[in-house]
Amino acid sequence: MDLTNASALVTGGAGGFGQATVRRLAQAGAKVVIADIHDERGQALAKELGNGSVYVRTDIMDENSIANAVQTAVGLGPLRAAVVVHGGPPAPGATGAARTVNREGQRIPLAHFAHTVNVYLVTAFAVTSQAAEAMAKNEPLDSNQRGVIINTASIAGFEGQPGQSGYSAAKGGIIGMTLTVARDLAPLGIRVMAIAPGTFLTLAYSGRMTDEQAQAHWGPSVPNPKRMGDPDEYARLAAHIVDNDFLNGTTFRLDGAQRF
Length: 260
Ligand SMILES: NC(=O)c1ccc[n+]([C@@H]2O[C@H](COP(=O)([O-])OP(=O)(O)OC[C@H]3O[C@@H](n4cnc5c(N)ncnc54)[C@H](O)[C@@H]3O)[C@@H](O)[C@H]2O)c1
What we know:
CATH architecture: 3-Layer(aba) Sandwich
Number of domains: 1
Shape: globular
Strand content: 15-25%
Distance between the termini: 35 Å
Order of helices and strands: EHEHEHEHEHEHHHE
CATH superfamily: NAD(P)-binding Rossmann-like Domain
Bound molecules: nicotinamide-adenine-dinucleotide
Number of helices: 8
């Protein structure tokens, strides 16, 4: 998929994976919509790139806000790539990971489970379907290709940890829908892929501890290389998926052979 004169959309574009991906897609020739709620980081990145990429404040929990980001991208050029890599708000009242039934014998509130699935799965489908609707209007390139969408799963979608029922259900849902949506969109020439990252040193970690502390805690659980992933390793894979028209309908693990 050639991104010359095209636009791209990155939800969570001001985040760890997001920023690295925005840079790679801009290098590949796209004007990128950086869709996020972190105004400062988003605006700084758009300024740094200086290639016509823009920050668009986008709340992933709001369909109209997603629509605004998609339409802004279409205004910059045909939308040919969407990378869905946002985080989201914690469930109100939640205090971190919670087992299905905790040590006090109480079950997790259904609203917490539903919220997590909403944040990581329903919103991903919302972006996927809206981006696909816009891509369907593109002139096709070689081999009838109109666009490509990359969602972000997690190794927790294969091997969830205790307390991750909602998160692993959501990420497993991304893995499950990838082939189905790729089949749905095949007649339109739109590819759908997912990346399932292992443990990466993004802002999600560095906000809570120093990089050295994060590496010391998480690095040893990765067989080889023995460190956390670098967000640019995610971004390089995303850029390759965009570039390689024969990749479709599957999820790639990107985890240094990490298994729990
Ligand atoms: N970091 C990891 O090790 C890892 C591993 C597997 C999967 N993931 C997945 O990668 C994705 C991105 O995570 P990350 O590690 O880059 O985190 P991050 O915290 O670095 O970035 C997340 C971004 O999402 C934005 N965001 C939060 N709420 C939003 C909202 N309501 N609307 C729009 N944007 C919002 C944040 O402002 C932030 O810029 C998530 O789906 C996460 O589950 C991360």
